[in-house]
Amino acid sequence: MTLASRTPASGPADGRIDVVVHLGFAVLMVASGVRYIMRHSPADNLWTVVLAGAVCALYAATAVLARRNHGPWMFALILAWAALVVVAPSFAWCSFAIFFLSRSAFRGVAAYLAGGATAAATAVGLFRLSEWTDVAMLLGPLAAGALLTLTYDKIERDAALQRRLFADVSQAQEQLAASERAAGRNAERERVSREIHDTVTQGLASSLLLLEAAQRSWPHTGAKEDVAKAASLLRRNLADTRSLVHELSAPGLESGPLLEALEHAARQYVELVRVQVTGEALPVPPEVRHTLIRVTQSAVANIKLHADAAHASVTLGYLPGAVTLDVFDDGRGFDPEAVPEPSAAGGYGLRAMRQRVEQLGGQLSVESSPGEGTIIAAQFPLPAAGVPGRVDGRP
């Protein structure tokens, strides 16, 4: 096992550390060998040089092959190194590379024993060099070994903590991404649900009322008119359904003047509804325009289905920095606080309208009481002048 394989988050920097350690060992061995040969006779050089060559070969083998079976190679290297440094203390400087290699090859107690043996062999060699008189030569390598061990342990603990923190951050990011995907799916389901409710569901409900009325009055002339109206509504629903499949957008309503689009949306359900505009037209962003149309469709469809009203009106109002929509009817009214929760029987209309409006930073209010009619009012903030938008539906 190399230094890089033991270092957390191995990367180019770890590979450079390995290279520096190995090159340092090679340079120090060559320098120490030259120094030894120059200071000793050829008779003394032979076996020392042979032992130094063996140490170099074992070091190379350990550094290259340690990933597969580091124990025997490192054990042999430490024994050969101990013998070399005791016989020839000139090679003591190479102990730093031996120490780092032993710490990268072993873990736990074995790592401490290997590092301690390296420091002890160096201490004995230097102490012998001082002819057994300089205590500093004995204690210096031992103190240096202890200091290196503590430093190496601290680096390993910090690296392990960094790995754990990185793993925690990665897990948190994955969970956040999963939550965002789930939230996106839920938001899309809500959006599709509102689109279907405001178009297909409302249209089908109105068509059903017309067909039921026609069935009760058949074969009178009014019944045929109701059937024709129901057929027209169903055709619009079919167009809306096709549009939802492709774009989730109502055909004919997303272009042209906004007032005309609101008239078209409202008169799908109540033909005599009055649609008017107040104030000076301001730029209306596409998403606000779309929501104004959908709220109008849903509110007027509720008038058709539930209000039994004689009169209904839709008012588009422009205020400084805002646009408003008021849908009024003089029908039977209801208690807004007593509206049931959405269920298979219905009840999605007001909830869907409120969600649409609030998602764009707007406000929706409902004023009604039994027998007093109903006003549904929405207000949206508009961008400041100069911000790209559309005026009354025109690009």
Topology, please?
Elements: H1 3-6, H2 12-39, H3 42-87, H4 95-105, H5 108-129, H6 135-217, H7 221-246, H8 258-267, E1 274-278, H9 286-307, E2 312-319, E3 322-329, H10 349-359, E4 363-368, E5 374-381
Parallel strand pairs: 1-2
Antiparallel strand pairs: 2-3, 3-5, 4-5
In short:
With 395 residues, the chain is α+β, with helices and mostly antiparallel strands. Among the domains are: 3-133, no CATH class; 255-395, 2-Layer Sandwich (Heat Shock Protein 90).
Your description of this structure?
- The protein is rod-shaped and about 130 Å long.
- The longest helix is centred in the middle third of the chain and has 83 residues, at 135-217.
- Helix 2 packs antiparallel against helix 4 (95-105) and helix 6 crosses helix 9.
- It has a five-stranded mixed β-sheet, covered by helices on one side.
- By secondary structure, it is of the alpha+beta class.
- It is 67% helix and 9% strand.
- It has ten helices and five strands.
- The chain has helices spanning 3-6, 12-39, 42-87, 95-105, 108-129, 135-217, 221-246, 258-267, 286-307, 349-359, and strands spanning 274-278, 312-319, 322-329, 363-368, 374-381.
- Among the domains are: 3-133, no CATH class; 255-395, Histidine kinase-like ATPase, C-terminal domain (Heat Shock Protein 90), CATH 3.30.565.10.
